[in-house]
Amino acid sequence: MIQPKIDDEISQVDETGEIPVSEKTAVNFMELVEYAAVMISGCIFIYFASSWTSPRYPYAYGYDSAWYSLVGRAIVAGKVPYKDYFDLKGPTLFFYEAVGQVLIKNRGGIFLIQCISIAAAVLFIYKIMRLYNNRVWTVISLLIFYACYYSLLWGGNTAEEFFLPLNFASIYLGLKFLKEKNYSEINSSSFLIGLCFFIIFWGKMTVAAPIIAIVITVFIYLAREKEWSEIAASAKYFIFGGLSVSAPIFAYFAMRGALADMVKCVFVLGFKRGTDLYEGYSLSWEKMLIICPLCLIFGLFLWTKKKTVLYKKILMTVMPIVIYILLHLGTPFDYYFIIELPLLICFLAFLPELTTKLKRKKNYIIRAGISAVIFIAILVFYIPPAYEKNEENSFIYDNDDGYTKIEAIKAIDAQIPESEKNELYNLESGMIYYEVLQTFPTNKYAVNCPYFLHLFPEIKTEILQKLENDKPHWIISEDMNSFDDEDIRKYVFTNYMLVDKNEAEELYWRIK
User: Fold this and answer.
1) Dist CA 505 CA 384 (whole Å)
2) 27 φψ region: left (φ > 0), alpha (ψ -120 to 50), beta (else)
3) Residues 6+ apart with CB under 8 A from 440
4) What is the sign of the dihedral through the CA atoms of 424, 428, 433 and 434?
5) Distance, CA of 232 to CA of 213 (rounded, Å)
6) How far apart are CA 277 and CA 172, in angstroms?
7) 83/253 Cα distance (integer angstroms)
8) What phi, psi does 57 have (nearest 5°)?
9) How many beta carbons lie within 10 A of that of residue 153, not counting itself?
10) What is the gyration radius of the CA atoms in the chain, in angstroms?
11) CB 351 within 8 A of CB 302
12) Which of 24, 62, 124, 203 has the fewest CB atoms below 10 angstroms from its CB?
């Protein structure tokens, strides 16, 4: 294992013990160069890795990505999430998308927000690593992060991706305080951590697991030191940070008459979805969670070394447990496990703790050996999927399958007269339909409709009533025969006829 020095910054000091101004300027300039290089590397990574949004893959679209982008465009156009378009993701994710669309239309806005997010994330990773390690190990750790991230990113444009820098920022602020014990910064740090936590909370609650872990760690430290006044002050500023996010969100939806819709979708139905174990437990799910038990073992071994500072032991025990529990509330797509990456970085930051030589050779061999096994196991689980992901992206880049599907979407759209575009009802078409055409669905339940019907049966009555009352001229669906509701399927086949079908969509015309 690499044995990094605690600090490789060696500066000359004058007779007063201060670093000369010229030396400080040189150090600051070098830091800025390093930060810029790290942030640029993140943007380059997204350019090659994010197949659904990057300009490198102009014909590749992902359903989730297209839907999030659509809601972002809808917000800019004056529509309201949950009221106009039903979904269970939190509003801050959609506000991210809206900001991207304000800055650059279409996929360029998503890509810009992605670049900002990854640049901020890797900057905080760099700062976390430099709290404890030299540049060599920091760069190696960044490369490991990129490899693991590559295997999890899927096609890009997810809540986990956009909220990653908020997790890393909070961990950095917490670790910086625990390392330096600078109480003068605790209030501002608490405010910023509260801000980060509630941005995530209003987007996807489970993604905040790493922040929860660092907050618990700081709380235990302050309680052990009997710093009750600091705990109270920190809690107050944390809440202030939360209110700074929550108040505008409440105001936005209340002013648009959609507050009840938002609360119902995000919290009531969102919690129901998270606890109904739609996918069920599986070996592949547990395999993707391998970082948690491995890092917990590492954390337990930290407790065997007396010289290890207490907060590292606490954090590496608490964080794996919190992430493991919260990650079992959701659907285990690859991108879902991005939440483990902050834990991976903490592991890499503290790894030298168990690989430095000890007086007792036997203890050193055991600890270094266990650390090496954990390190290698993580690489074994994550590097092969990263290679497979690279092969997949290379295939997307070299082939025109996406272009063919885009043309199929345009062919279906051409069947509908311009004067009847607002008479098109969506019964589970692919969301790339609207992203390619840069249009909006005319109905509320335009995505994941069959699943939402099972989750919230009242939707079925609402859909059938709307079809019967409004009698839309056209219906679009990817495959009506496999639509997972017999009554709705029967209604469509009774009242509509199939007029066109291709690899993208099916188009139906109302006959009675």
Assistant:
1) 35
2) alpha
3) 70, 73, 74, 77, 79, 434
4) positive
5) 18
6) 33
7) 9
8) -125, 70
9) 27
10) 26
11) no
12) 24
The pLDDT value given to residue 20: 64
pLDDT lower than 50: segments of the chain: 1-13, 15-16
3-state SS assignment for residue 510: strand
This prediction has a pTM of 0.91
pLDDT given for residue 11 in this prediction? 44
| The predicted structure's pLDDT at residue 207 | 95
- For 454-487, give the DSSP string: HH-THHHHHHHHHHHHH--SEEEES-GGG-S-HH
What is the torsional sign of CA 227, 219, 127, 144? positive
CA distance 194 to 364: 40
| Coil, strand or helix at 425 | strand
Helix, strand, or coil here: 496? strand
Q: Which two tokens stand for residue 320?
A: 């794996």
> What tokens does 456 get?
């919230």
Torsion of CA 407, 408, 411, 416, to 10 degrees: -130
Residue 490's Cβ-count burial label (10 Å; 0-12, 13-18, 19+) is exposed
Instruction: Give yes or no for a contact between 495 and 512, defined as CB atoms under 8 angstroms apart.
Output: yes
Give the model's pLDDT for residue 357: 58
Cα distance between residue 72 and residue 359, in whole Å = 59
User: Which residue carries 């404890």 as its tokens?
Assistant: 132
Q: Give start and end residues of each alpha helix (H) in 87-158.
A: 91-103, 107-130, 135-152
Do 433 and 504 meet the contact criterion of CB atoms below 8 Å apart?
A: yes
Contacts of residue 485, Cβ cutoff 8 Å, sequence gap at least 6:
450, 453, 460
- Please report the pLDDT score of residue 8 as a whole number: 44
Q: pLDDT value at position 293?
A: 94
CA 146 – CA 42 distance, rounded (Å): 8
Q: What is the pLDDT of residue 21?
A: 59
Residue type, 484: D
Longest dimension (CA), the chain: 94
Task: Tell me how crowded residue 157 is: count the other CB atoms within 10 A of its CB.
Answer: 29
Pairing of strands 496-501, 506-510: antiparallel
